[in-house]
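Hi L., both proteins are below.
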Amino acid sequence: MGDVVLIIRIMPESPEIDLEDLKSRITSAIGGLHDIREEPIGFGLKALKIAVVVSDAGGESDAVEARLNDLEGVERAEIVELTLT
């Protein structure tokens, strides 16, 4: 088995969400985090894009996505890209 790089877009609930606090909570919740960036969406709203390396074992990517969706202040987290390392 190898590893998979997940690129995940995280949409905050509103433009008022403190992105630095959200980044900190994401870092605490997710192991294997390699990068986190802000991506302007419009009307003051910014999404976060993160790169996470996980095992390609079944269900691992779904578990990461579910943990992110459970974080307070996250409206939606979705995998937008997936590639083998």
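That was the first. Here is the second:
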Amino acid sequence: MKTQILKSANKNLILSGLIIVLLLIGLTIQADNNESKSIKIALLLDTSNSMDGLIEQAKSQLWTIVNELAGASCDGKRPELQIALYEYGNDWLSPREGYIRQVTYLTKDLDLVSQKLFELRTNGGSEFCGQVIKTSLDQLDWNESHDDLKLIFIAGNEPFTQGGIDFHDACYRAKNKGIVVNTIFCGDFNEGVRTNWKKGAEITGGEYMSINQDCRTVYVSSPYDDRISELNSKLNDTYVSYGKTGYEKKQNQAAQDANATSIDKVNAVKRSVSKASHVYKNESWDLVDAAEQEDFEIAKVKEEELPAVMKGMNDDEKVKYVETKKKEREKIQKEIIELNTKREEYVKKQQTENSSETVLDDAMLKAIKTQAKSKNFKFEK
């Protein structure tokens, strides 16, 4: 009798344990499904002497690429965008590191990416494609998620086989980590095939493309540009800097507005549109974005780390001030997005037949949209 009771008790314990395990698995799956996906892009740029045109295209087309990616969604949610930047093939870089430098880690800070792009300078050197791919795999936080879209874009014009790291090994390693390598040859398509750029992409199921790196970006002005530029200035006024780097980051925001304008006024308009989108987030230095984070408490921000206008406020006054700025920002962003819809319609009508020349943003966006389908990402247009 006692044996039967013990067996029954053990069965109940086992069943209870199984139920708990299944519940925990269900909760884990539900939590995973609730998490927003990410788009992680590492851009590896050849900065040897002949690549001035490539760098100019990267600077002038960053915001076009960002705006397209801002239209992405997955399972009804907007993904987080992170961009990393590497330069390689530059004699100013350390030969011990393979003439390779991590310019930025994977970051949401788009102002930082813009700043670093504008700081790039070309100089002759040796271009080691396999090594720069391997370095980006080793150094960046790609994470283990199979749902994120993880892409490497490498652009250059020398044989893909140069250097001591075999590109086959680097690309197969990327494939095993769920990272797609896309190759962009700056020059004749067939030459890129002959020098193994196509093979580098094929290993991971990526795209091989060739571009004319010396082709200049063509901009089309619209009647809406002046108003969007005006709204951009008002948008900047809604940023409430805090923390040790707050002032510096806010200054950099204005500096990157100026950098965008230095390329073309329309390029600055495109940056303004990016700043009105969900991918432009600065919670590390802006109180409005920080207040959106679940674990953020404004009462915990030290008095000395607040902007001058907020010093001396009590907690309720601080919350009210930030909320007011948030409402101002949302109103401005809404108008920018509405004006941009009209701007895009106008530009589409004004544009003549597209040039046959493929440039950096064309190549990148084609690959991104193709590869995003496998991860269930969709784009607005």
